[in-house]
Amino acid sequence: MKISKTFFKYSFLVIFSIGINANIPEGAFTTLHVKAKDLDAYVDYMKNNSTAFEQIGSDIAGVCVTKTGNQYAGEMFVWNAYPSIEMAFQSSEKYDPFKATDEFKKLRKVMYSVTWKPLKEFDLRPGYERLWRVNLSDPMAFTQMMTKLENELESAGHDMRIGVFQPMGGGTETFHLRAVSNNASDSGKVADGYFAGASYGKTWDEAFANYVTEVVSETTEFCEVVYTKS
């Protein structure tokens, strides 16, 4: 499913730890991190029961299932996309996952939730995704390098969407760097190119050397859309 880039291409001013920058896109995401007792059953249930998404006013919702680097069995999260931080924050007043229906309680254990601010335009087309949790010394400078990297990957013939997200009300969560490919093969080709000396590798190395103070964790995930507002 292709979601137009224009959906998340905005010009919103954010005044938090990253300061004011007119290049930051509008919109926000929330994630509900859970421990699923049966991953397939939980995902199928959400695909066929949209009441919770309608209740919180989600524009688009989906799931990401952690495939490698798991911290626990059944690790995954449900994400929701909103046109503003305001609406993302309001969703917590409309739905309490700890007071969910018995059907939900049978399928998963709630771990924690986070609101996320995208720091660059992000083409929302879920797929095979590599996620780095990183601490950053200069979030906006790092984001600019990731925009450059994305353009270089496109010039090299790769279809990889890169997102940088700042947590808000996320407890111990760190910045998320997400590299999205259509499938595992496409992601692997980018990595093979890096180790073979592709020019885009220099941009990656420079960004990490100059702005990443710590890589907290790295995982791979399979993500998909399960709900779109009609």
* Integer count of domains: 2
Reading the helices and strands in chain order gives EHHEEHHEEHEEHHE
Strand content: 25-35%
The CATH class of the largest domain: Alpha Beta
Specify the number of helices.
Answer: 7
Straight-line distance between termini: 15 Å
Identify the CATH architecture of the largest domain.
2-Layer Sandwich
Portion of residues in helices? 25-40%
The gyration radius over C-alpha positions equals: 17 Å
In one word, what is the shape? globular
Q: What kind of sheet is the major sheet?
A: 8 strands, antiparallel, barrel
CATH fold field value of the largest domain: Alpha-Beta Plaits
Widest sheet, order of strands: 1-3-2-8-5-7-6-4
Classification by helices and strands:
alpha+beta
User: How much is the average pLDDT?
Assistant: 91
Low-confidence stretches: 1-20
Give the beta-strand count. Answer: 8
Features:
single chain, 230 residues, alpha+beta, Alpha-Beta Plaits, eight-stranded antiparallel beta barrel, disordered N terminus
Report on the structure:
The chain is 32% helix and 34% strand. It is α+β, with helices and mostly antiparallel strands and 230 residues long. It has two domains: 5-118, Alpha-Beta Plaits; 128-223, Alpha-Beta Plaits (2-Layer Sandwich). It has an eight-stranded antiparallel barrel with strand order 1-3-2-8-5-7-6-4, surrounded by five helices. Helix 5 (139-155) runs antiparallel to helix 7. The longest helix is centred in the middle third of the chain and has 17 residues, at 139-155. The model is unreliable at 1-20 (pLDDT under 50).
